[in-house]
């Protein structure tokens, strides 16, 4: 919600973003040149497979050179192949956190908790120089794949304009298309708009005009990159949806969404990333949903110093009822058929990379999503929403980013606290806290 904790920037990057749209059949065809060859194939067997959409049943997957090459619920594991025995646990695609932030280079906290892909919605682009190479590579790595927005669009004195000395701002008369072109030149994969007309102190602040919003979204659409909006109010969310925004990076909480808004959201095709774990942190400093997860003995030993510091960081105020308002609106949007995409806002006070997505899944179920729908929101839905090749699904040709959890999270979402193993590019992730 408050993305104002931003670092100082160095020189901007000159890298161009890779196309954001999905490639052929959603597979990693563009990545073959960087495959890490030579690792012997192996199988993960005796697992209940959730493929990103549905449970396929008990079966096995075969992995070679960082890719899934076979998924079976009937055949046998090829003879002589090394096997990781899943013991009846549930295998899922590596999770995707579709709203987080890095104040420096990517860290290992996400993958240690099964979050193998992260979407940073505001960051200093100078700190993300390695992201394109990393997300093409199939080599073993403890780091997540990262897509990032870089600096967002805001106005002088507007939301997030004071997070760092070099935050670019859109002034009256500036060309929104030129602003978007500057972000793409810095390496932004996504164009994010800050649509907030009240500061954290409750006082009015300037915000992008409807004409500026229309110009920014149109320029992003022409460049074939997703556009997303920070919103907390139905009125500004409406302006963004009418402009054709790709998605909302939070859910409006000021009033209950009405049928007209639900129809606009549904017909626009936009997705919504509720960030309920942030709403919980803002609503209550003690945040019972977060506390239940991070004190669980299946979770606590794996929390790093960095995660603990973020989880314990206070906002300094409470906005009681915000989580309830958000959850009510998420339920209505979900019932209306608007795609829900899971995200946390990790990197701000009270919300930490990796572990907070487990909290988010539980809050989404609490808001009325089925456990399978919540898991879809953290796997195939964000892959589809952002066009992330090879991520978010278990299927032949997809990247072998996988998480194995004890129990059946499609029946009891709290099973996601019990991570048994994580694979990134087909190689086991060391889960030890650092
Ligand atoms: Zn954020």
Ligands (ions, cofactors included) = zinc ion
CATH topology category name of the domain at 24-29 and 94-389: TIM Barrel
Radius of gyration: 21 Å
DSSP helical segment count: 13
**DSSP helix fraction:** 25-40%
**Relevant CATH superfamily of the domain at 24-29 and 94-389:** Metal-dependent hydrolases
Structural class: alpha/beta
What's the main sheet like?
Answer: 8 strands, mixed
Straight-line N-to-C gap: 27 Å
Mean pLDDT: 91
CATH architecture of the domain at 24-29 and 94-389: Alpha-Beta Barrel
Question: How would you sum up the global shape?
Answer: globular
H/E topology pattern: EEEEEEHEHEHEHEHEHEHHHHHHHEEE
Kindly state the number of beta strands: 15
Low-confidence stretches: 1-36
What share of the residues does DSSP label as strand, in percent?
15-25%
Instruction: Give the CATH level 1 class of the domain at 24-29 and 94-389.
Output: Alpha Beta
What does this 3D model show about the protein?
It is built from 13 helices and 15 strands. The longest helix is centred in the C-terminal third of the chain and has 14 residues, at 322-335. It has a domain at 24-29 and 94-389: TIM Barrel, CATH 3.20.20.140. Helix 3 (176-186) packs across helix 4 (210-222), helix 4 crosses helix 5 (234-243) and helix 7 (276-283) packs antiparallel against helix 10 (322-335). The model is unreliable at 1-36 (pLDDT under 50). The protein is globular and about 70 Å long. With 434 residues, it is of the alpha/beta class. Strand 1 and strand 2 (55-64) form a beta hairpin.
């Amino acid at each position: 919600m408050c993305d104002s904790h931003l670092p100082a920037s160095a020189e901007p990057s000159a890298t161009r973003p890779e196309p954001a749209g999905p490639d052929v059949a959603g597979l990693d065809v563009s990545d073959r040149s960087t495959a890490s060859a030579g690792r012997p194939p192996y199988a993960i067997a005796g697992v209940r497979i959730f493929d990103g959409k549905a449970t396929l049943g008990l079966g096995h997957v075969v992995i070679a050179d960082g890719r899934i090459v076979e998924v079976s619920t009937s055949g046998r594991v090829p003879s002589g192949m090394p096997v990781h025995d899943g013991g009846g646990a549930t295998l899922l695609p590596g999770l995707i956190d579709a709203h987080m932030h890095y104040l420096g280079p990517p860290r290992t906290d996400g993958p240690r908790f099964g979050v193998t892909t992260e979407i940073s919605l505001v960051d200093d682009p100078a700190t993300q120089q390695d992201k394109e190479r990393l997300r093409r590579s199939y080599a073993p790595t403890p780091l997540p794949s990262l897509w990032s927005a870089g600096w967002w669009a805001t106005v002088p004195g507007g939301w997030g304009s004071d997070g760092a000395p070099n935050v670019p701002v859109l002034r009256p008369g500036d060309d929104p298309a030129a602003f978007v072109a500057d972000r793409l030149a810095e390496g932004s994969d996504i164009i994010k708009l800050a649509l907030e007309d009240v500061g954290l102190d409750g006082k009015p602040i300037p915000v992008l005009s409807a004409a500026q919003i229309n110009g920014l979204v149109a320029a992003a659409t022409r460049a074939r990159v997703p556009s997303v909006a920070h919103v907390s109010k139905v009125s500004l969310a409406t302006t963004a949806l009418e402009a054709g925004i790709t998605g909302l990076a939070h859910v409006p909480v000021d009033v209950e969404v009405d049928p007209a808004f639900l129809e606009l959201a549904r017909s626009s095709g936009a997705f919504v990333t509720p960030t309920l774990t942030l709403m919980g942190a803002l609503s209550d400093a003690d945040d019972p949903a977060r506390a239940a997860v991070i004190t669980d003995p299946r979770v606590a030993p794996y929390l790093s110093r960095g995660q603990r510091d973020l989880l314990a960081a206070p906002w300094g105020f409470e906005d009681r009822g915000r989580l309830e308002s958000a959850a009510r609106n998420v339920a209505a949007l979900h019932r209306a058929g608007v795609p829900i995409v899971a995200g946390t806002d990790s990197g701000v006070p009270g919300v930490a990379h990796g572990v907070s997505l487990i909290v988010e899944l539980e809050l989404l179920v609490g808001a009325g999503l089925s456990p399978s729908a919540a898991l879809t929101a953290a796997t195939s839905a964000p892959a589809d929403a952002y066009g992330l090749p090879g991520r978010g699904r278990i299927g032949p040709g997809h990247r072998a980013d996988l998480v194995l959890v004890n129990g059946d999270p499609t029946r009891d979402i709290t099973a996601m606290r019990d991570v048994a193993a994580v694979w990134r590019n087909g190689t086991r992730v060391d889960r030890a806290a650092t």
